[in-house]
Amino acid sequence: MRFATKAVHVGSETDQDAAGSVNAPISYSVTFDQNRQKEKFEYSRTANPTRLALERNLAALEEGRHALAFASGLAAETTLMTVLKAGDHVVCMDDVYGGTYRLFTQVFADYGMKFSFVDARDLVAVKKAITPSTKMLWLESPSNPLMKIVDLKALAELANSAGILSVVDNTFASPALQNPLKLGIDIVVHSTTKYLGGHSDILGGAIVTSRDEVHERLRFSQNALGGVPSPMDCFLTLRGIKTLAVRMERHCLNAKRIAEFLNSHPAVKTVLYPGLPGHPGHELAKRQMRDFGGMLSFELKDPAMAVKVLERVKVIIRGESLGAVESLIEHPASMTHASIPKPQREAGGVTDGLLRISAGIEDGEDLIVDLREALVSR
Ligand SMILES: *Cc1c(COP(=O)(O)O)cnc(C)c1O
User: Fold this and answer.
1) Which of 80, 225, 289, 337 sits at 20 to 30 Å (Cα–Cα) from 74?
2) Per-residue confidence at 341, pLDDT binned at 50, 70, 90?
3) Which residues are catalytic?
4) What spacing in Å lies between the alpha carbon of 74 and ligand 1's midpoint?
Protein backbone atom coordinates (compact mmCIF):
# COMPACT_ATOMS: atom_id res chain seq x y z
CA MET A 1 0.00 0.00 0.00
CA ARG A 2 1.06 3.57 -0.63
CA PHE A 3 1.20 6.30 1.98
CA ALA A 4 -2.27 7.89 1.69
CA THR A 5 -3.92 4.46 1.62
CA LYS A 6 -2.05 3.26 4.71
CA ALA A 7 -2.93 6.51 6.48
CA VAL A 8 -6.64 5.82 5.96
CA HIS A 9 -6.75 2.07 6.54
CA VAL A 10 -4.05 0.64 8.80
CA GLY A 11 -5.42 0.23 12.32
CA SER A 12 -9.00 0.82 11.19
CA GLU A 13 -9.57 -2.57 9.57
CA THR A 14 -13.25 -3.51 9.60
CA ASP A 15 -12.85 -6.96 11.16
CA GLN A 16 -12.06 -5.50 14.59
CA ASP A 17 -15.58 -5.77 15.94
CA ALA A 18 -18.77 -7.69 15.21
CA ALA A 19 -20.37 -4.72 13.43
CA GLY A 20 -17.56 -4.16 10.92
CA SER A 21 -16.96 -0.58 12.13
CA VAL A 22 -14.82 1.46 9.72
CA ASN A 23 -13.12 3.18 12.64
CA ALA A 24 -11.11 1.60 15.41
CA PRO A 25 -13.46 1.17 18.39
CA ILE A 26 -12.66 3.45 21.35
CA SER A 27 -11.84 0.94 24.02
CA TYR A 28 -12.46 2.64 27.35
CA SER A 29 -11.58 -0.35 29.46
CA VAL A 30 -8.76 -0.39 31.96
CA THR A 31 -8.89 -4.12 32.56
CA PHE A 32 -9.95 -7.06 30.41
CA ASP A 33 -11.75 -10.35 31.05
CA GLN A 34 -8.94 -12.84 30.66
CA ASN A 35 -11.38 -15.74 30.42
CA ARG A 36 -13.21 -14.26 27.44
CA GLN A 37 -10.69 -12.67 25.11
CA LYS A 38 -9.36 -13.58 21.66
CA GLU A 39 -6.28 -11.36 22.00
CA LYS A 40 -4.29 -10.97 25.18
CA PHE A 41 -4.86 -7.69 27.00
CA GLU A 42 -4.28 -7.26 30.74
CA TYR A 43 -4.25 -3.65 31.82
CA SER A 44 -4.53 -0.51 29.67
CA ARG A 45 -1.23 1.05 30.71
CA THR A 46 0.50 -2.05 29.33
CA ALA A 47 -1.62 -2.34 26.17
CA ASN A 48 -4.97 -1.00 25.00
CA PRO A 49 -6.82 -1.96 21.78
CA THR A 50 -7.30 1.63 20.55
CA ARG A 51 -3.70 2.50 21.31
CA LEU A 52 -2.58 -0.63 19.51
CA ALA A 53 -4.57 0.42 16.43
CA LEU A 54 -2.77 3.78 16.47
CA GLU A 55 0.62 2.15 17.05
CA ARG A 56 0.11 -0.17 14.08
CA ASN A 57 -0.83 2.80 11.91
CA LEU A 58 2.21 4.84 13.03
CA ALA A 59 4.59 1.96 12.35
CA ALA A 60 3.15 1.60 8.85
CA LEU A 61 3.43 5.33 8.10
CA GLU A 62 7.09 5.46 9.13
CA GLU A 63 7.86 2.10 7.49
CA GLY A 64 9.08 0.74 10.80
CA ARG A 65 8.39 -2.57 12.49
CA HIS A 66 7.29 -1.18 15.84
CA ALA A 67 5.63 1.94 17.18
CA LEU A 68 4.73 3.10 20.68
CA ALA A 69 2.28 5.89 21.43
CA PHE A 70 2.59 8.36 24.31
CA ALA A 71 0.63 11.09 26.05
CA SER A 72 2.80 13.83 24.50
CA GLY A 73 5.89 14.27 22.39
CA LEU A 74 7.90 14.95 25.51
CA ALA A 75 6.54 11.81 27.20
CA ALA A 76 7.86 9.90 24.16
CA GLU A 77 11.24 11.65 24.44
CA THR A 78 11.45 11.01 28.20
CA THR A 79 10.73 7.32 27.64
CA LEU A 80 13.22 7.16 24.77
CA MET A 81 16.01 8.42 27.04
CA THR A 82 15.68 5.25 29.16
CA VAL A 83 17.85 3.47 26.59
CA LEU A 84 20.68 5.52 28.17
CA LYS A 85 22.32 5.47 31.60
CA ALA A 86 24.14 7.95 33.83
CA GLY A 87 27.50 8.79 32.25
CA ASP A 88 26.24 8.35 28.69
CA HIS A 89 26.82 11.20 26.26
CA VAL A 90 24.45 12.48 23.56
CA VAL A 91 25.46 14.51 20.52
CA CYS A 92 22.48 16.71 19.77
CA MET A 93 21.71 19.01 16.88
CA ASP A 94 22.10 22.62 18.01
CA ASP A 95 18.77 23.86 16.65
CA VAL A 96 16.25 21.60 18.40
CA TYR A 97 12.77 22.03 19.78
CA GLY A 98 13.02 24.21 22.91
CA GLY A 99 11.35 21.56 25.07
CA THR A 100 13.89 18.95 23.96
CA TYR A 101 16.72 21.29 24.92
CA ARG A 102 15.09 21.91 28.31
CA LEU A 103 14.49 18.19 28.91
CA PHE A 104 18.14 17.38 28.18
CA THR A 105 19.84 20.28 29.96
CA GLN A 106 17.50 20.80 32.91
CA VAL A 107 16.28 17.26 33.63
CA PHE A 108 18.51 14.51 32.28
CA ALA A 109 21.74 16.44 32.88
CA ASP A 110 20.87 16.18 36.59
CA TYR A 111 20.79 12.40 36.25
CA GLY A 112 24.36 12.24 35.00
CA MET A 113 23.81 12.27 31.24
CA LYS A 114 26.01 14.53 29.14
CA PHE A 115 24.95 16.56 26.11
CA SER A 116 26.87 18.37 23.36
CA PHE A 117 25.09 20.62 20.89
CA VAL A 118 26.52 20.85 17.38
CA ASP A 119 25.44 22.09 13.98
CA ALA A 120 24.70 18.73 12.38
CA ARG A 121 24.96 20.23 8.88
CA ASP A 122 28.69 19.93 9.52
CA LEU A 123 29.53 16.21 9.45
CA VAL A 124 33.09 16.83 10.60
CA ALA A 125 31.83 18.70 13.68
CA VAL A 126 29.48 15.82 14.50
CA LYS A 127 32.26 13.29 14.12
CA LYS A 128 34.55 15.37 16.35
CA ALA A 129 31.86 15.61 19.04
CA ILE A 130 31.58 11.82 19.34
CA THR A 131 33.56 10.48 22.33
CA PRO A 132 33.94 6.93 23.73
CA SER A 133 30.99 7.59 26.05
CA THR A 134 28.68 8.83 23.25
CA LYS A 135 25.67 6.58 22.87
CA MET A 136 23.22 8.64 20.81
CA LEU A 137 22.99 11.18 17.99
CA TRP A 138 19.81 13.30 18.17
CA LEU A 139 18.68 15.10 15.02
CA GLU A 140 15.86 17.25 13.71
CA SER A 141 15.31 18.09 10.03
CA PRO A 142 13.90 20.53 9.12
CA SER A 143 14.96 22.03 12.42
CA ASN A 144 13.03 24.31 14.69
CA PRO A 145 12.89 27.26 14.11
CA LEU A 146 15.82 27.80 11.70
CA MET A 147 14.71 25.23 9.13
CA LYS A 148 18.16 23.66 8.83
CA ILE A 149 18.24 20.55 6.68
CA VAL A 150 20.73 17.86 7.70
CA ASP A 151 21.87 14.88 5.65
CA LEU A 152 20.03 12.06 7.41
CA LYS A 153 21.54 9.29 5.31
CA ALA A 154 25.12 10.44 5.85
CA LEU A 155 24.51 11.03 9.58
CA ALA A 156 22.88 7.61 9.96
CA GLU A 157 25.98 6.04 8.41
CA LEU A 158 28.25 8.08 10.67
CA ALA A 159 26.29 7.01 13.78
CA ASN A 160 26.21 3.42 12.64
CA SER A 161 29.95 3.24 12.07
CA ALA A 162 30.52 4.82 15.52
CA GLY A 163 28.21 2.21 17.05
CA ILE A 164 25.75 4.76 18.46
CA LEU A 165 21.98 5.09 18.10
CA SER A 166 20.64 7.68 15.67
CA VAL A 167 17.38 9.46 16.48
CA VAL A 168 15.35 11.84 14.33
CA ASP A 169 12.56 14.03 15.65
CA ASN A 170 10.41 13.88 12.49
CA THR A 171 7.64 16.16 13.76
CA PHE A 172 8.24 18.99 11.27
CA ALA A 173 8.25 16.87 8.11
CA SER A 174 5.77 14.22 9.28
CA PRO A 175 5.91 10.75 7.72
CA ALA A 176 4.00 12.17 4.74
CA LEU A 177 7.17 13.93 3.59
CA GLN A 178 10.12 12.08 5.10
CA ASN A 179 10.86 8.58 6.41
CA PRO A 180 14.17 8.64 8.33
CA LEU A 181 14.15 4.87 9.01
CA LYS A 182 14.42 4.28 5.26
CA LEU A 183 17.54 6.46 5.27
CA GLY A 184 19.18 4.24 7.90
CA ILE A 185 18.14 6.12 11.07
CA ASP A 186 17.48 3.82 14.08
CA ILE A 187 14.65 5.62 15.86
CA VAL A 188 12.03 8.18 14.86
CA VAL A 189 10.26 10.27 17.47
CA HIS A 190 7.15 12.41 16.94
CA SER A 191 5.01 14.93 18.63
CA THR A 192 1.73 13.63 17.18
CA THR A 193 0.21 16.80 18.63
CA LYS A 194 1.30 18.48 15.39
CA TYR A 195 0.76 17.25 11.80
CA LEU A 196 -0.37 13.72 12.68
CA GLY A 197 -3.21 14.85 14.94
CA GLY A 198 -3.50 17.93 12.79
CA HIS A 199 -6.32 19.80 14.51
CA SER A 200 -4.81 21.33 17.69
CA ASP A 201 -7.10 19.14 19.77
CA ILE A 202 -4.89 16.39 21.19
CA LEU A 203 -1.45 16.06 22.77
CA GLY A 204 0.46 12.95 21.79
CA GLY A 205 3.81 11.45 21.00
CA ALA A 206 5.29 8.40 19.30
CA ILE A 207 8.46 6.37 18.90
CA VAL A 208 8.98 4.21 15.82
CA THR A 209 11.86 1.79 15.24
CA SER A 210 12.70 -1.38 13.37
CA ARG A 211 15.32 -2.37 15.97
CA ASP A 212 13.69 -5.21 17.94
CA GLU A 213 15.89 -4.88 21.05
CA VAL A 214 15.36 -1.10 21.21
CA HIS A 215 11.62 -1.60 20.89
CA GLU A 216 11.52 -4.24 23.63
CA ARG A 217 13.40 -1.98 26.02
CA LEU A 218 11.10 0.95 25.20
CA ARG A 219 7.92 -1.11 25.45
CA PHE A 220 9.05 -2.09 28.93
CA SER A 221 9.73 1.60 29.72
CA GLN A 222 6.38 2.70 28.27
CA ASN A 223 4.65 0.46 30.80
CA ALA A 224 7.10 1.16 33.61
CA LEU A 225 7.00 4.97 33.27
CA GLY A 226 3.33 5.10 32.27
CA GLY A 227 3.22 8.16 29.98
CA VAL A 228 0.49 6.65 27.80
CA PRO A 229 -2.28 8.43 25.85
CA SER A 230 -5.99 8.00 26.55
CA PRO A 231 -8.10 5.82 24.21
CA MET A 232 -9.97 8.95 23.05
CA ASP A 233 -6.74 10.74 22.17
CA CYS A 234 -5.58 7.64 20.27
CA PHE A 235 -8.85 7.66 18.35
CA LEU A 236 -8.58 11.38 17.53
CA THR A 237 -4.97 10.93 16.39
CA LEU A 238 -6.01 8.07 14.10
CA ARG A 239 -8.84 10.21 12.75
CA GLY A 240 -6.44 13.09 12.10
CA ILE A 241 -4.00 10.80 10.31
CA LYS A 242 -6.67 9.72 7.82
CA THR A 243 -6.50 13.18 6.20
CA LEU A 244 -2.76 13.73 6.65
CA ALA A 245 -1.86 13.20 3.00
CA VAL A 246 -4.38 15.73 1.66
CA ARG A 247 -3.75 18.21 4.45
CA MET A 248 -0.02 18.09 3.86
CA GLU A 249 -0.45 18.99 0.18
CA ARG A 250 -2.20 22.22 1.17
CA HIS A 251 0.22 22.95 4.03
CA CYS A 252 3.12 22.75 1.54
CA LEU A 253 1.32 24.83 -1.09
CA ASN A 254 0.45 27.59 1.38
CA ALA A 255 3.92 27.62 2.94
CA LYS A 256 5.54 27.98 -0.47
CA ARG A 257 3.22 30.81 -1.37
CA ILE A 258 3.89 32.64 1.89
CA ALA A 259 7.65 32.07 1.54
CA GLU A 260 7.65 33.56 -1.96
CA PHE A 261 5.55 36.53 -0.84
CA LEU A 262 7.82 37.26 2.14
CA ASN A 263 10.95 36.77 0.05
CA SER A 264 10.04 39.77 -2.10
CA HIS A 265 8.74 41.94 0.76
CA PRO A 266 10.86 45.05 1.55
CA ALA A 267 10.48 44.68 5.36
CA VAL A 268 11.86 41.14 5.35
CA LYS A 269 15.57 40.44 5.71
CA THR A 270 15.61 36.67 5.13
CA VAL A 271 13.15 33.85 4.61
CA LEU A 272 14.04 30.37 5.87
CA TYR A 273 12.12 27.83 3.81
CA PRO A 274 13.79 24.78 2.25
CA GLY A 275 11.48 25.08 -0.77
CA LEU A 276 13.18 28.31 -1.87
CA PRO A 277 16.01 27.59 -4.35
CA GLY A 278 18.32 29.93 -2.37
CA HIS A 279 17.95 27.92 0.87
CA PRO A 280 21.26 26.16 1.72
CA GLY A 281 19.41 22.88 2.29
CA HIS A 282 17.25 23.05 -0.85
CA GLU A 283 18.98 20.32 -2.86
CA LEU A 284 19.29 18.04 0.17
CA ALA A 285 15.61 18.55 1.03
CA LYS A 286 14.71 17.64 -2.55
CA ARG A 287 16.57 14.37 -2.11
CA GLN A 288 15.32 13.27 1.31
CA MET A 289 11.83 14.84 1.45
CA ARG A 290 8.83 14.44 -0.86
CA ASP A 291 7.93 18.14 -0.48
CA PHE A 292 9.26 21.05 1.56
CA GLY A 293 6.74 21.16 4.37
CA GLY A 294 4.38 23.65 5.95
CA MET A 295 6.83 25.41 8.26
CA LEU A 296 8.85 28.55 7.57
CA SER A 297 10.60 31.28 9.51
CA PHE A 298 11.55 34.79 8.49
CA GLU A 299 13.61 37.58 9.92
CA LEU A 300 12.47 41.18 9.82
CA LYS A 301 14.91 44.00 9.04
CA ASP A 302 13.52 45.86 12.07
CA PRO A 303 13.32 43.47 15.06
CA ALA A 304 10.88 45.83 16.82
CA MET A 305 8.37 45.10 14.05
CA ALA A 306 8.04 41.44 15.09
CA VAL A 307 5.70 42.20 17.98
CA LYS A 308 3.61 44.51 15.79
CA VAL A 309 3.14 41.80 13.19
CA LEU A 310 2.00 39.40 15.91
CA GLU A 311 -0.53 41.94 17.18
CA ARG A 312 -1.89 42.79 13.73
CA VAL A 313 -2.60 39.38 12.23
CA LYS A 314 -6.31 38.56 11.99
CA VAL A 315 -6.60 35.25 10.13
CA ILE A 316 -3.29 33.76 11.22
CA ILE A 317 -3.42 33.00 14.92
CA ARG A 318 -0.73 34.22 17.29
CA GLY A 319 0.08 31.06 19.16
CA GLU A 320 2.50 28.27 19.85
CA SER A 321 2.34 24.81 18.32
CA LEU A 322 2.22 23.92 14.62
CA GLY A 323 1.01 21.44 12.07
CA ALA A 324 -2.71 22.05 12.44
CA VAL A 325 -5.44 23.15 10.02
CA GLU A 326 -5.26 26.76 11.24
CA SER A 327 -2.24 28.92 10.41
CA LEU A 328 -0.16 29.94 13.40
CA ILE A 329 2.52 32.59 13.90
CA GLU A 330 4.88 32.84 16.82
CA HIS A 331 7.98 34.62 18.09
CA PRO A 332 10.57 31.95 19.03
CA ALA A 333 12.69 34.31 21.14
CA SER A 334 9.86 35.02 23.59
CA MET A 335 7.67 31.94 23.11
CA THR A 336 8.79 28.46 22.00
CA HIS A 337 12.52 29.04 22.52
CA ALA A 338 12.39 31.28 25.59
CA SER A 339 13.91 28.48 27.68
CA ILE A 340 17.21 28.77 25.76
CA PRO A 341 19.57 31.39 27.31
CA LYS A 342 19.60 34.59 25.22
CA PRO A 343 23.32 34.68 24.26
CA GLN A 344 23.16 31.09 23.09
CA ARG A 345 19.83 31.64 21.33
CA GLU A 346 21.09 34.71 19.45
CA ALA A 347 24.42 33.10 18.57
CA GLY A 348 22.46 30.23 17.07
CA GLY A 349 20.38 32.58 14.92
CA VAL A 350 17.15 32.80 16.92
CA THR A 351 17.14 36.59 17.01
CA ASP A 352 14.47 38.97 18.29
CA GLY A 353 13.34 39.75 14.73
CA LEU A 354 12.62 36.13 13.86
CA LEU A 355 9.05 34.91 13.38
CA ARG A 356 7.90 31.37 12.65
CA ILE A 357 4.81 30.45 10.67
CA SER A 358 2.98 27.15 10.52
CA ALA A 359 0.96 27.41 7.30
CA GLY A 360 -2.51 25.96 7.77
CA ILE A 361 -4.92 24.71 5.14
CA GLU A 362 -6.94 27.93 4.68
CA ASP A 363 -7.22 29.64 1.29
CA GLY A 364 -3.67 30.87 0.63
CA GLU A 365 -4.90 34.24 -0.65
CA ASP A 366 -6.39 35.09 2.76
CA LEU A 367 -3.06 34.30 4.42
CA ILE A 368 -1.14 36.56 2.02
CA VAL A 369 -3.62 39.43 2.50
CA ASP A 370 -3.33 39.00 6.28
CA LEU A 371 0.48 39.15 6.19
CA ARG A 372 0.56 42.06 3.74
CA GLU A 373 -1.61 44.10 6.10
CA ALA A 374 0.37 43.05 9.18
CA LEU A 375 3.65 44.07 7.52
CA VAL A 376 2.74 47.68 6.66
CA SER A 377 5.26 50.11 8.14
CA ARG A 378 3.07 51.92 10.66
C1 LIG B 1 5.92 20.06 19.94
C2 LIG B 1 7.18 19.38 19.67
C3 LIG B 1 7.71 18.45 20.58
C4 LIG B 1 7.07 18.16 21.92
O5 LIG B 1 5.83 17.56 21.77
P6 LIG B 1 4.61 17.74 22.81
O7 LIG B 1 3.53 16.94 22.18
O8 LIG B 1 4.29 19.20 22.89
O9 LIG B 1 5.07 17.21 24.12
C10 LIG B 1 8.89 17.82 20.24
N11 LIG B 1 9.53 18.10 19.08
C12 LIG B 1 9.05 18.98 18.19
C13 LIG B 1 9.80 19.24 16.92
C14 LIG B 1 7.86 19.66 18.45
O15 LIG B 1 7.41 20.56 17.57
Assistant:
1) 289
2) confident
3) 45, 97, 169, 194
4) 6
